[in-house]
Amino acid sequence: SQELEQSPQSLIVQEGKNLTINCTSSKTLYGLYWYKQKYGEGLIFLMMLQKGGEEKSHEKITAKLDEKKQQSSLHITASQPSHAGIYLCGADMGRGSTLGRLYFGRGTQLTVWP
Amino acid sequence: EPEVTQTPSHQVTQMGQEVILRCVPISNHLYFYWYRQILGQKVEFLVSFYNNEISEKSEIFDDQFSVERPDGSNFTLKIRSTKLEDSAMYFCASYPLATSSYNSPLHFGNGTRLTVT
Known about the structure:
The structure holds two protein chains of two kinds.
Chain A: E1 4-7, E2 10-14, E3 19-25, E4 31-37, E5 43-49, E6 55-58, E7 61-65, E8 71-76, E9 85-92, E10 102-104, E11 108-113
Parallel strand pairs in A: 2-11
Antiparallel strand pairs in A: 1-3, 3-8, 4-5, 4-9, 6-7, 7-8, 9-10, 9-11
Chain B: E1 5-7, E2 10-13, E3 19-24, E4 31-37, E5 43-50, E6 53-57, E7 65-68, E8 75-79, E9 88-95, E10 107-108, E11 112-116
Parallel strand pairs in B: 2-11
Antiparallel strand pairs in B: 1-3, 3-8, 4-5, 4-9, 5-6, 7-8, 9-10, 9-11
């Protein structure tokens, strides 16, 4: 089965600092999704990456998928308290796997203090 | 923007009781899913549903679980005889038309928190 390792498990940063969250797969990824979750709430879609070397940005969040498609990073620039939450990466294994079946990492708990 | 909606947001039930969790997927989506997240653990796939039948289910989805699309809009997850370990957040998700699916994200609802006492 697919295993996704996220690091770090938790991150505490001061407002305005940059940070990076990593997601490493044991297998080649067909697609990699980043979601944000507030504790006990739903999953908010952030970004989806499919091509090796792909990079996407939205506001102050940038996500990259490496060339081998086994590792992704999520980078937040000039963090704000609104960025606080749990960041989850989810992997789509593509062919041979049911469409929409994602395997998730354990999440990274981000705290941003003023 | 269209949303996946789930009801109720919280459900408390006694062990052994049946529960039905309800979801209204996005209207033009064709693939439907249930995931669950036990507190402090990973989000886990339970089942996928397409063309009025289950397309895949995980080992978690045993005979106590069933899914149904009773009409054109609702998608339900039934747990026949709840156990303490069924306590979790249950997420419904949907996926758009197949031809565009790999360019679109999986849309999740806000979840139903199920507590079995």
